[in-house]
Amino acid sequence: MPKIVYLRDPKELICALGLGERADEFLQMITYFDYAGGVALPVSMFQEEARKLNPKQKNTLETLVNECEGKVHLRSRRYYIHPLEKNKERVRKLVRDYEQEISDNIDELGDIDAPEIERRLTISALLDHKKHYGLIMLNLFFGQLLKGEVNLEMYENVKAACIADVENYYKFLMTGKLGKQGVYSGETREKFSRVVLPSDTEPSLLNPEGEKATRKMIIREMDHPLQILLFAGQLLDQDKPGQIEVTVNPLSGAIEIGYALRSIYTELGIEKIKDVVLMKYSRYAEGDTERDIESCVPQALKGEIEKLRNHRIMIIDDNTFTGTTLKNLRDMMQRLTNDIGIAAIERISKIEGPRAIEYEELNIKPISKLRYVGNVMEFVKNNNLRGISQ
């Protein structure tokens, strides 16, 4: 199984966040995360913590995990839902139903305080899945708003709820204390179960079966919480000028990053990121060379573009291969501001041919990876996912 290769010593990045006194705690936490971003606990440890939950919560938690080679992985079939389901309509309804079930379980936790790492990581599985489902809905609704197929009020409900779930997850991961979770309206859930995914009816030349496009609606490439946390330290350490007015995050891979970074800094009392702007951009889109920034943002959200004007912004993607996405987004925004930084959390270190952006041009240097760590299908097959309750 591939391992994360950090650009810097993780302890240095933790200290850069001002968490030096808790460095050992976070270094221990890192050892419980697998390469894909899920938590893997020894079976006995998981069972001991699960027994502390009420029967309903314990039952739900056990449906979220799988046991493999003496460890319990806290992301399983319910997280990697698309690779295991071919019926796209069923996928959407499952996401809706799972989000509701987990939301009810989180409500029952009450004012929980979990200073112990093992207890914190066990319960965080509920928050992790809730966050994941919210980000799936936000990504889909952004695309639907771009096509004019959902109203702004519905999109704003999803966005606000999703941000709350991201904030709640990182608050709990760092402190063991719960905040307020996001509330998705019944109308939102019902609409999500009925919308058509792009590749349901529009298979591309690159993906004749529509498989890759649909998969990216469900599985994000950057969903490793500890990598994002360490990147927050890297951003503070390498970006000396100070506050960033706006981070720009291209969908779908980077959808969580801006909100997560802002949540981490807010919890630590650090003023670093003021706002987050999402953009739907793909270098594979037809007519790519003629695209402009207005085509990346829904008409109903044109005010988001004005947030960039004459401000200091940082474009942060989940990973960079040739750098084409970062370069094109930077070029599009140069008519709005001259203060543009570019960054990615990961980069592919071995490619053939020229790069649109060289490593030295990146304002925040990413970690290297020798292959895509987001190969969920391979992860699912290699680990023979099997629910713990079985």
Which helices and strands, and how do they pair?
Blueprint: H1 10-16, H2 23-30, E1 40-42, H3 43-50, H4 55-64, E2 66-68, E3 71-73, H5 88-109, H6 117-146, H7 152-175, H8 186-192, H9 198-201, H10 211-218, H11 225-238, E4 244-251, H12 257-267, E5 273-280, H13 303-306, E6 313-320, H14 324-333, E7 340-348, E8 367-369, H15 376-383
Explain what you see.
Helix 1 (10-16) crosses helix 11, helix 5 (88-109) packs across helix 6 and helix 7 (152-175) crosses helix 12. Helix 14 links the parallel strand 6 and strand 7 (340-348). The protein folds into 2 domains: 32-218 and 376-383, no CATH class; 225-369, Rossmann fold, CATH 3.40.50. It is globular and about 55 Å long. Residues 200-210 and 370-390 have low confidence and may be disordered. The chain is an alpha/beta fold and 390 residues long. The protein has helices at 10-16, 23-30, 43-50, 55-64, 88-109, 117-146, 152-175, 186-192, 198-201, 211-218, 225-238, 257-267, 303-306, 324-333, 376-383; strands at residues 40-42, 66-68, 71-73, 244-251, 273-280, 313-320, 340-348, 367-369. Strands 5-4-6-7-8 form a 5-stranded parallel β-sheet, sandwiched between helices. The protein contains 15 helices and 8 strands.
